[in-house]
Amino acid sequence: MKISGARMVIEALKKEGVDIIFGYPGGAVLSLYDQLYDSDIRHILTRHEQGAAHAADGYARVTGKPGVVFATSGPGATNLVTGIATAYMDSVPMVLFTGQVATSLIGTDAFQEADITGITYPVTKHNYLVKDVRQLPRVIKEAFHIATTGRFGPVLIDLPKDTQAAEAEFVYPEKVSMVGYNPTYAGHQGQIARAAKLIARAQRPVIYAGGGVVFSGGHEYLLEFAEKTNIPVTTTLMGLTGFPGNHRLSLGMLGMHGTYWANMSMSHADVIIAIGARFDERVTGKVDDFVRDKKIIHIDIDPAEIGKNIRVDIPIVGDARMVLGELLKKAEPLATEAWLSQIEDWKRQGPLCYKQDENGKIAPQYVIEQIYQQTGGNAIITTEVGQHQMWTAQYYRFSRPRSLASSGGLGTMGYGFPASLGAQLGRPDELVFCIAGDGSFLMNSQELATAVAYNIPVKVAIINNGYLGLVRQLQEFFCRRRYIAVDIQSPNFVKLAEAFGAHGLLVEKPGDVAPAIRRAMDINGPVVIDFRVKDDENVFPMVPPSAQISEMIRGAFK
Amino acid sequence: MRKVLAVLVDNTPGVLVRVAGLFARRGFNIESLAVGTTVDKTVSRITVEVDADNEMLEQVIKQLYKLINVLKVSNLSEFPSVHRELCLIKVQANANNRAEIQQILSSFRAHIIDISHQSVIAEVTGSEDKIEAIISLLQVYGIMEIVRTGKISLMRGSKTVRNGETG
Ligand SMILES: Cc1ncc(C[n+]2csc(CCOP(=O)(O)OP(=O)(O)O)c2C)c(N)n1
Ligand SMILES: [Mg+2]
Fold it and tell me: Both A320 and A369 in a single domain?
């Protein structure tokens, strides 16, 4: 039996086990939505396509399943771009369907035409413009395969109106065959043996774990490996949930706003075992100094990451979980006591700290510590981008994989709130907190309407410092406090929440922080908590741009 | 250093944009580029010449492999290879100096393929050096227009990009 292209999309989504779509309709996806009418797949109407893309991304990060998005042609498609780029930078699996003008009109500047495949070449893992409906089943199969294998990423399928309307036989392929796409999963045995030997001889080893550990499901092997070898573990922002933050071997996050002891350990290590991480410049600081007197083992599923930013001694291309499994078989206990006690000294010399006066203003770090305390570290957290994001990485000790969604690579303000909606829908039984900045939250606050419409009970904690804080901090240090374009006046967030039909709570005193968090947790519905915090706090430590990572500015209370 | 890459790609729309876009994003200037189909009509071959050191080139090759439509990449600069380019040159010429031009061309085994009262078109095939040499010799007559195909290259011997080494 022949069916339409639009129907094929729905049938294919069923075969892929998709049960939720985030989207926004329009003229060019009329038939797609018409087919959705008859299906059991749940559609979440966000209030902006960017919100849909971030929600799908949040859903994917916390469930491990690909996020699926529908949007119309032209402005609908271009509104997705920031969301796509965000997912691409952090290797998040997504499949996005966009409507397109009829094939006969493509290239004519037709109404609501945008060359979305052209626009998204650099920010998708792959994309398709499907002009022949007979290709559609294969394309959708390939899209899901590409998005969810190798290094994950977003894949976009652009569907002209006539492709959606045209009919053909629908046979969904069982398998894909693509000559040009064969990710390597198993690491090279010889390289793994060399790595094991190097590790066995290490005096001052450090494991540097990134998002690859979380995405591959390699956290258990990582824990076993670290415990067996007694090697301390530092993680990137993306890797934070890959290793328990409370563990004796945990060094916390490294890099520009990483802990003093994580950066000191990295800079004094003799062997670095990088797993599913990419030596971003925010992590390495000045590269020449970073690599000096070190051997580096780099495990990554993406061969193009190896040797990209840094010289590597033992490259291993493969899946983080599988390679860790192999390394585990060869792992021997190491005598790292002296090294670990050196690290303990660093911890004592440069602990994370802040001051909370009982009668003074609320310290932003205190709010995050309280969210950690009140949730027992068991919530799923999403963040926006800024100081609050860095404090979350420092003060919330994550204990479970996939319990954080934060835009690392692109650093997208406006990501966290819609992502929290997707996360909550993906994990309906969990408590979801979005830790937001007053600046970032306004970038997608329209999604309060979505939260209310579907009663998605996320708790938004706005760390309201009256500033674009992270930029203000940069201006304080590097522009002689000539503050410009960072002093922001926000709306009354409680009233804003209420106007949308959500709950709003205002917190101005330190003593009210914990009760407000508990109160929010008791409300079965979306809540916005406006925490009025000190306006001039800085994130410490801080590695100044292009300095060595051991040259941290450590702040006032050392 | 100039390097020549042979890139086998799916013969699908947009593939050239993906490949060229990748070079542009990494800040590589493409010196020359030639595209055509192969024995297998579903596969195209892109020959691209770039100015890059070995490390940069290794990165580009890895990045190229990340494109789903890229099937195989060979760095032909690492193998004994033959390189050719076709160049058409329109030169000012009249009955008086046509023979002279003809003589220059024939010593390079190049030909005249079109004649008018004011001009001739020369066809030159060969290495870059040879083409540059002819161009400089013809300059004195007045070159009106030049078009070049860009370099195309094959490895010497029986080795091919399909079955042979990758870069
Ligand atoms: C879309 C976008 N625009 C600009 C920036 C640059 N930027 C990074 S952090 C920041 C300030 C964020 O302010 P806020 O959300 O209030 O967080 P705070 O730093 O105060 O905690 C800005 C403007 C960005 N990351 N994303
Ligand atoms: Mg702020």
Answer: no
**Looking at the structure, do residues A120 and A198 belong to the same domain, yes or no?**
no
User: What is the best residue among A392, A440, A471, A489 to mutate for testing ligand 1's pocket, by most ligand atoms within 8 Å of CB?
Assistant: A440
Cβ neighbors of A248 (< 8 A, separation 6 or more) are: none
Same domain for A105 and A235?
A: no
* Whether residues A411 and A291 fall in one domain: no
Q: Check B58 against A303: CB less than 8 A apart.
A: no
Considering only CB atoms, which residues of chain B are within 8 Å of chain A? 9-10, 13-14, 17-18, 21, 25, 55, 58-59, 62-63, 65-71
- Residues of the domain holding A501: 364-532
* Candidate from B21, B55, B68 with C-beta closest to A181: B68
Q: What is the mean pLDDT of chain A?
A: 96
**pLDDT exceeds 60 at position A557:** no
Report, as an integer, the average pLDDT of B55-84: 94
**Rounded Cα gap, residues A222 and A227, in angstroms:** 8
Residue A246, judged by CB atoms within 10 A of its CB (0-12, 13-18, 19+), counts as: exposed
C-alpha A69/C-alpha A219 separation (Å) is: 29
Residue of A nearest to B61 (CA): A304
**In terms of domains, do A127 and A232 share one?**
no
Contact A141, A13 (CB under 8 A): no
Within-domain flag for A209: yes
pTM higher than 0.90 = yes
Question: A356-368 pLDDT, tens per residue?
Answer: 988 899 999 999 9
> Measured in angstroms, how far is the CA atom of residue A468 from the centroid of ligand 2?
4
Instruction: With respect to residue A553, please indicate whether it lies within any of the assigned structural domains.
Output: no
State whether A477 and A433 are in the same domain. Answer: yes
Considering every ligand atom shown, identify the ligand nearest to the alpha carbon of residue A413 and give its number.
Answer: 1
Q: What percent helix, strand, coil does chain B show, rounded to 5?
A: 30, 40, 30
Here the CATH number for the domain that contains residue A209 is: 3.40.50.1220
Is A380 found in the same domain as A341? no
Residue A178 belongs to some domain of the structure? no
Give the tens place of pLDDT for each residue, B78-106. 999 999 999 999 999 999 999 999 999 99
Task: List the A503-507 sheet strands across, edge first.
Answer: A404-405, A380-383, A432-437, A459-464, A527-532, A503-507
pLDDT in tens, A481-501: 999 999 999 999 999 999 999
Average pLDDT over every residue of A9-19: 98
Cα–Cα dist A265/A249, whole Å: 12
Domain boundary among A136, A169, A202: A169
For residue B35, the cross-strand partners are: B46
Q: How far is the alpha carbon of A184 from chain B, nearest alpha carbon, in Å?
A: 12
Q: pLDDT tens digits, residue range A282-317?
A: 888 888 888 889 999 999 999 999 989 999 999 999
Q: What is the per-residue pLDDT for A282?
A: 85
Q: Is residue A547 one of the residues assigned to a domain?
A: no
* Domains in chain B, CATH or no CATH each: 2-78 (3.30.70.260), 82-152 (3.30.70.1150)
What is the least distance, in Å, from the CA of A147 to any CA of chain B? 12
Closest Cβ–Cβ partner in A118, A122, A146 for B25? A122
